[in-house]
Amino acid sequence: MGTTKGKISRRDFLKTTGGAAVAGVTLSGLMWSPADAAPLPKKWEETFDVVIVGSGFAGLAAAYEAKKAGASVVVLEKMKTPGGNSIINGGVVAAAGSPLQEKMGIKDSPELLLQDMLKAGLHLNYVELARMVAYKSNETVQWTINELGVQYKEKVTQEGGHSVPRMYSTYNQSGSAIITRLLAKLKEINVVPRTQCYLTQIYRDKDGRVKGVQIREGYVFPKENSGRLKNIRARKAVILATGGFGADVSFRTTQDPRLDEKVDTTNQPGATAEALKEALRIGCTPVQLSWIQLGPWGSPDEKGMGLNPFFAQLCCAMYGLWIDTKTGKRFVNELADRKIRADAILRAGNKCIAFTDAHGFAIGEKLIAEAIPKLIERGVVKKYDTLEDMAKAYNIPLEPLKETIERWNKSVLAGKDEEWGRYLQKDQQPIGPGPYYASRLMPKVHHCMGGVRINTKAQAIDLFTNQPILGLYAAGEVTGGVHGAVRLGSCATVDCLVFGRIAGQNAAQEKPWS
Questions:
Q1: pLDDT tens-digit profile of 12-24?
Q2: Which terminal residue of the chain has fewer beta carbons within 10 Å of its beta carbon, N or C?
Q3: Is there a catalytic annotation at residue 338?
Q4: Cα(447)–Cα(435) distance, rounded to whole angstroms?
Q5: What is this structure's pTM?
């Protein structure tokens, strides 16, 4: 950019130049300014204290807390049903220093969870945000139990990158167990999400404050111009809880060109970027948008999230092995963080399997009883009576595979994984004789670490002033900085619930504008 013949608004700059560099225009000319403010509607068709966009964990938690604090609340959801990605997630929630861990004799602490998050995140995390998640993790899970009535299984499990088992699992192994309880609680206090309401504009006025939104009511995904335009005033604040953009192929490939249409995603179709782009248009600070996580436990034998993540993680990463079929050898610590494992699978050419023996499978039958029969029925998980049968099915060299299992079994008996340093479960056993159960692995786009910048109060931060944008909060996957380069499994749910609650509580305390 050149230096100073004058400043123009970002809106006019982009309109006249298409975004090209122009001599004589300063970078500060591209910051949000009062000239960028769209005129407020002459008439607001509805008014609420707090307007929440998005109905996943973060949005519903925000609505619950804001309403409890005495604010009038509306929740807007663009899809036909509420829940977003949250309602189809795996139903696992990290809780450091929890009663279940104490019952199982597992020593843990919020500080250890924080250190795990920072290590996986390559220390790109905004530490103050990560600390909020770690230190409020157990409190938040207990809140879901005691106040919402969420039911969990009586055993904590372990995801990759966690030093110890600390995951609570919902009774049905699905985020729907939390979403349905939030929806029920909200209904009791007369808050019912409005579906098919698509955000088209956030009104940031000349004084810099966000004062409401424009939506398309009756929107039919993905028809951009469907529905009727409607303006809703936010007397106190707008809360963005619109999730990530994992299903938005165009936007995600802009951030990471490798993630084109050939790469599947675990996300629901509505996980797109329009709300994020609108937040950036009005001056929010973008954070780490190119850090997009691939779930390493996906399978090419089912679409979307599917059920294989449960088998590959709970049965195989904890009690079995992940094998490179070309070499017959382990290629990664099966409990490493998701990026390490996904990258390792890609380096192996997507020619990897997860397998376990009868012991690991039996544990899976207890932990994920709902999923196991479906995985077998659909052919995602296959049963083999002998090691020779399994090796033949995946074209694995048999002798190296036998040597790999023998080496692992010696590690289990010695109490330490010398090869990859994997955490050994308290009920870990050597891999025994058949039958064996296996599935193919293929990483899929799963979570967007990047988004808009927030502070510990969940206030959205202006790009140029580094100050909160008055009247605008954000929570959940639409935000960035909490997880850094890699999100640990089971920490997204905590992130969404922690900052959703904080956003709702603080938004309700804002002074109304007039």
A1: 544 444 444 343 3
A2: C
A3: yes
A4: 35
A5: 0.90
